[in-house]
Amino acid sequence: MSTVIGRRALLALAPALLLSRPGRAAAGDAARLRFEEIYTGDRVLSLEFSDKAKALVGRRVVIRGYMAPPLKAEASFFVLTSTPVGLCPYCNSDADWPADLLVVYPGREAEFVKNSIPIDVTGILEMGPHRDPATRFFSRLRLTDAAFRALE
Amino acid sequence: MTCRTPRTLLAAACSLGILAGGPAVAQTIYPVDRADVLIGQKFDFKVEFPGIADPAKVKVTINGKDHAAVLGKAARFIERESGVDASALLLRDVAIERPGTYTVTATDGTSSSSVTWTVYATGPRKVKNVVLMIGDGMGIAHRTAARIMSKGIKEGKYHGKLAIDDMPRMALIGTSGVDAIVTDSANSASAYTSGHKSSNNAVGVYVDRTPDHFDDPRVEYIGEFVKRRKNMAVGVVTNAEIYDATPAAMGAHTAKRTENQAIVDMLYALKPEVMMGGGSPYFLPQSNPLSKRTDDRDYVAQAAADGYRVTRTAQEMMAAAHDPRTRKLFGLYNTRFLDGYLDREILKPSYVLPNQPDLPDMARAALEVLSRHPNGFVLMIESALTDKYTHQLDTERAVYDTIMLDKTAEVVKEFATRRGDTLVIITPDHTHSISLVGTVNDDAPGPDMREKVGVYQHAGFPNYVDANGDGYPDRPDVSRRLFMTLGIYPDHYETWRPKTEGIFFPTVKDKDGNYVANEAYRAVPGAVLVQGNMPRSESNGVHAADDVLLTAMGPGSERIHGFMDNTDVFRVMAEALGLGHRPKKR
After folding, report:
1. Contact in structure between B311 and B275 (CB atoms under 8 Å)
2. Which of B258, B312, B313 sits opposite A93 (nearest CB)?
3. Fold observed for domain A31-150
4. Which of B289, B332, B502 sits opposite A99 (nearest CB)?
5. With 0-12 CB in 10 A as exposed, 13-18 as middle and 19+ as buried, what is B91?
6. Binding residue per annotation — B391?
7. Which cofactor does the UniProt annotation name (chain B) (predicted)?
8. Is the pLDDT of residue A134 over 90?
9. Which of A12, A44, B53, B121 is most exposed by smallest CB count within 10 Å?
């Protein structure tokens, strides 16, 4: 597994460098996809992927959101949410994950960014049910080979 | 040490828990000592023995007679309880029909213990309906702040009273549970709706020693009782998730309040005629992308098939309620809890879902539909967010929702006044350590925010504006605003101002698992790091053990006065509805 992450790290270098340039967050071939553009439906009883999201599957996209507190120290992914998740949902009985979360597999080891700071994440959009093999965490939407940049 | 009869004093000491702290040494009996039980109310009877007991030596009597003779059947002996290396006796779904004092004595031949229950009857029915409104986490300070912000104050006198202020009955309520002086919303609501104490995180059960969260001895709720024996209607209305602790205490029985899916299953099985709130993901089959269920149950489809009008917006809710054919109403208005008043109506941040109903309108809709049921109803309405926001030290949002609670009370009060046949009880379930201590005055000199805190005569009066006269200040962030503080808190930044950008998240978890101050607020001008005074494992402010202030009106409310126990609230409702009334035979 670590080898795979290592290889991903190399692949991820290019976008990471690109993103580090000021004012070029959404540059390159990455299409901007906003959280509110991902789904259609009333968001209470129905939620479906939008045509725009479906059309971007397999392409490099950039999505702005917030990094949720780490699920586990050893997790190879982090959770991106549309609004800050203030609490670790697994640590507080009242909290629960929002439905529109996105799982991000960074191309290289990710430093935790405080969950109050927005980040731009660039990665390959992957759609469909998936359970992370190590943590059993379930997701419907992912960004792989991803790099990100904090906006503050 | 063991507790042996006939050394009754010692036995009493055991059952009172005076010896708590040492290893379990004698029988534990559920319901617990000094339980008050309504005649006919179902409960599970359980005796836990300290070790493996010899069934030949086990003896359980009630008032000196074999328990089977009193309860109608013999309890089942379990030699080795699941996950526990000890024996128990269990008898589910019993009820006692004759009022009186019942002393239960259990022995395994070596040690014995006793508990005494009071089984009570009631007088005849005085009301058709009961409305129990729970202001989750609402303390006196919330109420005072809501009155100031909603009605205004000049020269020490208010320009008006809240709707709850001039209801005729009041009492202080003790909220402690079986396990602790401080209670959570689960066991507190459960005490109101069942008349039995429970423990933190539990609803509708006495928490036993086995690890299973669903096998604990159950007690019957008022909603279950009135449906079973009086053919009355039941309503569950909340602006939290429908499976959250308070509404769960209308129909779910579990030691663990976070068993959301199972709680939805149990609540729905009761088929309350009105069921409204948030938390849609646990009502949807796992095939739905929003679902958090692990099975294919689709309660939205099920509710429609069961004759409910299913609604998902404020407009749909009101239209369904106004339709005279609607007798069952089901509403899901958010995936999580509904957004609070300040966010929904004033600040409107991006996370607010459109078209969510306001709690007063939910109350209106519920009353309209439930009134169509000829045998009357029991309606629980929870104003949930005062608690949630106070946990997060977000006092402005908490007070706006306290005003909303009062607007809801106004709706209920109007209904009860017009009808004269409805008991209304409005009560918090527990408090927070919150106080209203003064004002923050931006115009005070200097950059140091602490020096802008007005205390005593320097507090003066706040300058909120309510130009449209709707009872809610148009903005929370005026130049002289109320300053509320909490007595127990995690590390956090005190920003001295309303959180207009979004709900306050005082802490984040660090890599060691401790909750530390959320650095996002460090940059707020004047923000000051406040060192927490509670364990670092706690992410938020916590409940207090202070008494809560209950307010009531309507027939049957005469019993409410002075200091009462939270289990007495059940008894007041049972008396008003005559649930234990047995007319004398001539």
Report:
1. no
2. B258
3. OB fold (Dihydrolipoamide Acetyltransferase, E2P) (2.40.50)
4. B289
5. buried
6. yes
7. Mg(2+); Zn(2+)
8. no
9. B121
B191 CB-near residues (< 8 Å, 6+ apart): B175, B177, B197, B198, B565, B566, B567, B569, B570
Domain that holds residue B522: 489-540
Residue in A closest to B352 by C-alpha: A83
Please tell me whether residues B520 and B408 are part of one structural domain: no
B525 & B551 share domain = no
Q: Do A86 and B511 touch (CB under 8 A)?
A: no
More confident position, B507 or A108: B507
Question: What 3-state DSSP class applies to B353?
Answer: coil
**Do A99 and B281 make contact, defined as CB atoms within 8 angstroms?**
yes
Distance in Å, alpha carbon of A32 to nearest chain B alpha carbon: 18
Residue A109: its pLDDT value, please? 72
pLDDT at A86 (0 to 100): 56
Nearest of B382, B386, B406 to residue B396 by alpha carbon: B386
Amino acid identity at B332: L
Judged by CB atoms closer than 8 Å, whether chains meet at A44 and B312 is answered as yes
Shared domain for B554 and B506, answered yes or no, is no
Strands B169-174 and B563-565: parallel
Is B322 assigned a ligand-binding role in the annotation? no
Instruction: Say which of B114, B185, B194, B433 is annotated catalytic.
Output: B185
Chain B residue numbers with beta carbons less than 8 Å from the beta carbon of A44 are 280, 290, 312, 332-335, 353
How many Cβ pairs within 8 Å bridge chains A and B? 89
C-alpha separations of B371 from A123, B172, B367 in Å: 56, 30, 6
Contact B258 A42 (CB under 8 A): no
Number of neighbouring beta carbons within 10 Å of residue B419: 14
> What whole-number distance in Å separates Cα of residue B238 and Cα of residue B331?
10
| Domain count across chain B | 3
Contact (CB, 8 A) for A12 and A106: yes
Question: With a cut of 50, which residues of chain B have pLDDT below it?
Answer: 1-24
| Integer Cα distance of B497 and B494 in angstroms | 8
Tell me which of A45, A50, A114 to substitute to probe the interface with B (most B C-beta atoms closer than 10 Å): A45
Give the H or E element holding residue B194: helix B185-194
Taking the C-alpha atoms of residue B187 and residue B582, their distance in angstroms, rounded to an integer, is 30
Residue B346 is classified by DSSP as I
Q: What is the pLDDT of residue B75?
A: 97
3-class secondary structure, B506: coil
> Residue B557 catalytic?
no
Is B387 annotated to bind a ligand? Reply is yes
Domain segments of chain A as ranges: 31-150
Cβ neighbours of B350 in A, within 8 Å: 36, 82-83
Mode of pairing for the β-strands spanning B492-494 and B453-454: unpaired
B509/A36 CB distance under 8 A: no
Coarse DSSP helix, strand, coil percentages of chain A, rounded to the nearest 5 percent: 20, 35, 50
Both B288 and B345 in one domain: the answer is yes
